[in-house]
Write a structure and sequence with these properties.
The structure holds 2 protein chains of 2 kinds. Chain A has 2 helices and 8 strands. Chain A is mainly beta. The chains are: A mainly beta, B alpha/beta.
C-alpha cells in the first residue's frame, strides 16, 4: 500500500511526459525539477511546466535477457535511451519490435503500457514506453 | 439538438494467433474450426497491454485527429468486460492520460460485448441534453477464453474511442434503439477468470433474436430499408454470425465487408462494433449512411442509424492510424508464447 502514493505522485510525468522548460536558458528537462541545473538561481521564477511531444530517436539501446521477476514474461526486451525532440534523454522500454529492427537514430514515439503490478491484488503501474515509428509509404 | 461523432480513434495489438495453431494443442481440427467460424487469425495483447492501455491508445488517436481541448470533455465512459480493476474505474486513468481530468464524470460500463455502444448512447444523452459539451465513449477488451474452450479460437483484443459532440460532427447519430431481455447465454461470475457460455444456446435465442429484433426495431422506427444504407455492421463474435444475420435482414456482402473485422482480428468483444465503425469511418464519404447493431450477452442489442456529413472531407484521418494500418505489420505467435502472454501458464510462487 505504501508505494501507491509514491507512484501516484509521478503520474503526470509517467502518463503525459510533463517536464519543465527553463525560460532563462531555454532548455527542457524531464522529469520535473524545481530549478535549472545550468542556470541555478537565475532560473528561479522562470521554470515553466511543459508537456513533451513524445517523439524522439534512439540514442542508444540494449537487449535485456536477465530481468526482474515482473518483466519475465516479456524477455528478451529492448531498453533504450531515447532523446526527445526537445532535448531531454530518458530510459525506457521499446516494444512491439525486435532488437534487430532497431538502430541508433531510429525514430520512436511514446505509448502507454503497464510498467509493473504489485502482485495480483495490488496497484497496477502505467507509464511510458516507446514504439518505433514506421515511415508511411509515399 | 443534433448529436454525432466529432472524432474517433482505434487500436489493435500487433500480435496474432491462428485457430490452426490453437487446434494443434487441443486435438481439434483448427483449419475446419477457422473455416466454420470464418476467423483466419485473432489479435493477442502483449503482457503489458490491458483494457486501460488499449483505451488510452484509442483515445489518444481520437484526440490526434481533432483540435478539441481535452478540458472540454465532460464525461468518459469505458465499456469492457475485462476492466483490469474490479473496483477503480479504467476511465480515471484514460481521463488523466488524455488531459481531461479533473472536471468531468467517469464510469466504467459492462454489458458483455455491447458496453462500448451503451457508452455511446449515454454520451448522446448527455450531449443532447446540454449537460456536457463533449463525451468520450470507449469500447475495449482483452477478452478471455478458457484454455481449450471454443471461445479460445476467437476471443481477442482491441478497442476504439469516439468523441461525441454537437459541433463539427463527421457523422450524426440520428437514432438509436435497444432491445434487452434476461437471456443467460454467456456470463462470468465475480472473481472467476474465464466466462462460461451456453454453447449453441448463444446462437438463435441469444445473438440472432436480439440482433434481428434490434435491427428491425430501428428500421421500423426510422422508416428505412436495408438498401438505404451504404454500410452495415453487426456484432461479430466470429465471421459467420454477422454474415448470416446480414443476409436474414437483407443486407448485402458489399455493405458489411468494410466493418467485418472478425476474420482477421477475431472477437474484440466490447471493441467489436466500435472497431468496425472506425474501419467504415476510415473510408466513408459525405452522405454515406451507416447501420450498426451491437450485441451483448445477457442479453441485449443497441442499434444505430448514422449519417456521414460533409465535415469528413476536412477531417484529418491520416493523423492517426487507420484500422487497416493497425492490422498490418503483424507478428504471429505459437501457442506456447500465446499462453505465456495471456497468463495461462502458472508460474512458480503463484
Amino acid at each position: 500500500m505504501a508505494t501507491a502514493p509514491r507512484f501516484w505522485r509521478e503520474n503526470p510525468s509517467r502518463y503525459n511526459l510533463v517536464g519543465i522548460r527553463c525560460n532563462s536558458c531555454g532548455r527542457y528537462f524531464f522529469p520535473r525539477r524545481a530549478i535549472c541545473p545550468i542556470c541555478h538561481r537565475k532560473s528561479v521564477g522562470k521554470i515553466e511546466e511543459v508537456k513533451l511531444k513524445g517523439t524522439g530517436k534512439i540514442f542508444s539501446f540494449t537487449e535485456v535477457h536477465d530481468t526482474l521477476e515482473e518483466l519475465v514474461l516479456q524477455k528478451p526486451y529492448v531498453v533504450a535511451m531515447v532523446e526527445f525532440d526537445e532535448g531531454p534523454k530518458v530510459t525506457g522500454q521499446v516494444i512491439d519490435c525486435e532488437a534487430s529492427e532497431l538502430q541508433i537514430g531510429t525514430p520512436v514515439r511514446v505509448t502507454m503500457r503497464k510498467l509493473s503490478e504489485e502482485g495480483p491484488s495490488g496497484i497496477i503501474h502505467y507509464g511510458y514506453k516507446f514504439v518505433p515509428v514506421k515511415e508511411k509509404a509515399p | 439538438m443534433k448529436v454525432g461523432i466529432v472524432s474517433y480513434g482505434a487500436y489493435v495489438p500487433r500480435y496474432r494467433i491462428t485457430p490452426d495453431e490453437i487446434g494443434k494443442v487441443w486435438g481439434v481440427d483448427g483449419k475446419s474450426m477457422s473455416k466454420g467460424l470464418m476467423i483466419n487469425c485473432k489479435s493477442v495483447p502483449s503482457p503489458d497491454e490491458d483494457t486501460i492501455t488499449i483505451s488510452v491508445e484509442a483515445a489518444r488517436n481520437m484526440m490526434r485527429r481533432c483540435s478539441v481541448d481535452p478540458r472540454d470533455i465532460g464525461a468518459i465512459y469505458v465499456g469492457s468486460e475485462s476492466h483490469p480493476y474490479a473496483v477503480k474505474p479504467s476511465g480515471t486513468i484514460v481521463a488523466e492520460a488524455i488531459g481531461a481530468s479533473p472536471n468531468l464524470t467517469v464510469a466504467d460500463y459492462e454489458f458483455a460485448c455491447k458496453a462500448g455502444t451503451a457508452a455511446i448512447q449515454t454520451c448522446m444523452g448527455l450531449v443532447g441534453s446540454g449537460m456536457v459539451k463533449y463525451g468520450v465513449a470507449i469500447g475495449a477488451d482483452t477478452s478471455q477464453g478458457a484454455p481449450g474452450d471454443a471461445l479460445e479460437y476467437s476471443a481477442s483484443a482491441g478497442g476504439a474511442a469516439f468523441l461525441i459532440g454537437s459541433e463539427k460532427m463527421i457523422a450524426t447519430l440520428d437514432r438509436t434503439y435497444s432491445y434487452t431481455t434476461d437471456t443467460p447465454d454467456f456470463w462470468r461470475r465475480e472473481g472467476q477468470m474465464y466466462p462460461r457460455h451456453g454453447g449453441r444456446f448463444t446462437g438463435e435465442p441469444a445473438y440472432f433474436k436480439h440482433v434481428l429484433s434490434g435491427a428491425r426495431g430501428l428500421l421500423e422506427r426510422v422508416g428505412a430499408e436495408p438498401k438505404d444504407y451504404t454500410y452495415a455492421i453487426f456484432h461479430q463474435p466470429n465471421g459467420k454470425f454477422p454474415t448470416r444475420v446480414a443476409k436474414q435482414l437483407g443486407f448485402s456482402d458489399a455493405q458489411i465487408k468494410t466493418g467485418l473485422l472478425a476474420p482477421t482480428i477475431g472477437n474484440t468483444y466490447s471493441g467489436a462494433v466500435p472497431l468496425g465503425l472506425s474501419a467504415i469511418l476510415d473510408e466513408a464519404r459525405p452522405g454515406d449512411r451507416i447501420f450498426a447493431v451491437a450485441y451483448g450477452s445477457g442479453a441485449g442489442s443497441d442499434a444505430f442509424d448514422i449519417k456521414v456529413t460533409d465535415e469528413i472531407d476536412k477531417y484529418p484521418r491520416s493523423k492517426a492510424p487507420t484500422v487497416k494500418e493497425l492490422d498490418s505489420n503483424l507478428k504471429f505467435l505459437d501457442y506456447a508464447t500465446y499462453a505465456k502472454f495471456r497468463g495461462k501458464i502458472l508460474l512458480g510462487g503463484e
